[in-house]
Design brief:
The protein is built from 15 helices and 15 strands. By secondary structure, the protein is α/β, with parallel strands linked by helices. The protein is globular, with a radius of gyration of 22 Å.
Length: 423
């Protein structure tokens, strides 16, 4: 490690986040990101990493995508953040584009600066529309860290700030359990069910056949709204624009963030139906966000939507998904006692390992082999593995070679030396 990088790490502990910086070091990750381009990160010491973490899908189109950089650069010649109080060309254009590409009758876009803020907006909107307070989410959910969003998720993130739900307004039910959903809704006192279509931080467990449509029907039966959190699963990651559409569900609200920023300018969106839009007409000033819907961010997001909807992108996602699955199946067959499962929908993948924290040594060995992926913090048996939606075949081939070496190294560390099973 260079002296310069060591100094940055020490200053990070002193002035930024000592706990997080030290935790990464303890896990064998001394990453300080410098240059980034395409699907590559470069460490301060010049080491290249293939990025399949993508910061939760923020970099679906790659780091510093040239088309997005050009659009943002041109936008700065005329626009800035704008004034959130007034109509604007950019905000209206993005809202109209979202209404056209979102499922069902979603019409109005309410802007935030980050995904968690948009989740807060969705919860407040549900409460206004239904005049009920209770919100149902899944056990070990993750919807962000702001005031309402944090209450929908794992207690790990709420207890530390004394933000636990003390009023019984936030109900947590197991994923893929329809009986639990029905039991939570049957008293008709729930405003909304909020769910990541495929829960990311929980390791991408896949919805059972018919589960999500059945949840939507239960919401309709018991007069609750359905909020689809598409922050990590939307924007073509499943081969369609929004993962929820692939399951045949038309939500009452859809939240998008991360990827819609293009990794260049913070923006998030809560897109709602006419039924949910009452407060926008009752008091349009009821929610305000100075940076929400910043005009430069809207212009970048419009380009993100345009790229994602190109016909060739869907074909590329399908090809990458099939190519990566074939390669990962071969790797799994070589280490079946350690690499035990693959969860997949499109280029959303969760790799399962036969150890309570098996994804952590895999992450470390991937890092040592030039790949950056991250373990699922709420289920560290599972590695979040998210190839970019525009990756080339040569890069996929290189990635698989590096994954093979990393899984072999992690297996030897966790299980011990053993003969590799022939593929």
């Amino acid at each position: 490690m260079s002296e310069e990088k060591l100094e940055v790490l020490e200053r990070s502990k002193k002035f930024w986040n000592p706990g997080k910086t030290q935790a990464w070091e303890d896990m064998g990750v001394d990453l300080v990101i410098d240059r980034r381009e395409g699907y590559f990160l470069y460490d301060m010491d010049g080491r290249r990493l293939i990025d399949v973490h993508l910061n939760g899908g923020t970099y679906n189109l790659g780091h510093r995508n040239p088309e997005l950089v050009a659009v943002m650069s041109a936008a700065t010649q005329r626009f800035d953040m704008g004034n959130h109080h007034f109509p604007s060309l950019a905000r209206t254009a993005l809202a109209e584009a979202l209404a056209k590409c979102c499922p069902g009758d979603l019409q109005y876009t309410i802007y935030g600066a980050g995904g968690a803020e948009a989740i807060d907006i969705a919860i407040k909107t549900a409460r206004n529309a239904t005049q009920k307070r209770k919100i149902v989410s899944i056990v070990r959910a993750y919807h962000g860290h702001t005031g309402l969003a944090v209450k929908t998720g794992a207690e790990r993130f709420s207890e530390i700030f004394l933000s636990e739900d003390t009023q019984g307004e936030f109900i947590h039910v197991p994923f893929n359990n329809l009986d639990a959903i029905e039991d939570a809704l049957r008293r008709r006192d729930v405003a909304a069910v909020i769910m990541e279509t495929i829960p990311a931080t929980y390791g991408f467990p896949m919805p059972h056949e018919g589960y999500l449509p059945a949840v939507k029907k239960l919401c309709e039966r018991f007069d609750a709204l359905y909020i689809a959190d598409e922050v990590q699963t939307g924007l073509m990651r499943t081969g369609v624009m929004w993962a929820i559409s692939k399951y045949g569900v038309e939500p009452d609200m859809l939240v998008t963030g991360k990827g819609i920023t293009g990794g260049l300018y913070p923006i998030s969106c809560c897109v709602v139906s006419e039924r949910c839009a009452g407060w926008l007409k009752q008091d349009g000033f009821a929610h305000m966000s100075t940076a929400g819907g910043a005009e430069i961010g809207c212009i970048v997001a419009l380009k993100v939507l345009e790229i994602c909807q190109r016909p060739e992108v869907a074909s590329t996602v399908g090809y990458i998904a099939n190519f990566m699955r074939a390669g990962l199946d071969r790797i799994q067959s070589s280490y079946p006692d350690f690499f035990t499962g693959i969860r997949q929908n499109g280029v959303i993948l969760g790799l399962e390992f036969n150890h309570p924290e098996g994804a952590k040594p895999v992450m470390k060995h991937l890092y040592q082999n030039g790949v950056w992926a991250i373990f699922s913090s709420l289920d560290p048996r599972v590695l979040q593995f998210k190839p970019g939606i525009l990756m080339s075949q040569p890069l996929c081939e290189e990635l698989l070679r590096r994954v093979d070496r990393a899984v072999a190294g992690a297996r030897e560390e966790v299980v011990g030396p053993g003969l590799r099973k022939s593929a």
